[in-house]
Amino acid sequence: MDKELLRHKIKKQILRWLLLLVIFIIPKIQFAQTYSTRNYTVYDGLPSSAIRCIYKDSRGLLWIGNDAGLCTFDGKAFQIVKTTQGKTINQVWSITEDDQGNMWFGSHGEGVYKYDGNHSERITKKNGLADDYVRVITYSKNFQCVVAGSYKGISIIKNDTIITSPEWMGKKEKCIVLLE
Q: Are 103 and 109 within 8 A, CB to CB?
């Protein structure tokens, strides 16, 4: 009787392992997907390999911001974007698009650039931005405005008007006091 019980336990254990194999391993093998990847470098046309941001616009074009400039990628080739004056936009840290298809770039040191596909416009602290070192930029569909954030505050750009947060909002010690 002991041999019979032992045989039964062994069969039961083998069935458990087979069940686990069927449940967990075979589906992984059958449904595994492989994705092809490719690494792009400066040899492929990137201005720099220090990528700060990537944005896919409404037309499917990839915008790539990095330390040495701004470029687009259409799936085949990189194209360096230049301002109306022929200058590259450096230190691009953030990218967004508004409802009209205008592209907005937050630059770390050069303020904000608005690009309509043909012409570019630069907005800086002299125009009313909180700071020229823009860390993040986004478009609000609800309020139809561009919001640019920096260490010294937030700037809201709507039409030709720029509203900037009070300067005390950009100081760490004041923000901590407000949060307590």
A: no
Per the confidence metrics, is the pTM higher than 0.85? no
Length of the chain: 180
Instruction: Please state the CATH superfamily assignment of the domain spanning residues 47-172 in this structure.
Output: YVTN repeat-like/Quinoprotein amine dehydrogenase (2.130.10.10)
pLDDT tens for each residue of 147-168: 999 988 899 999 888 988 875 5
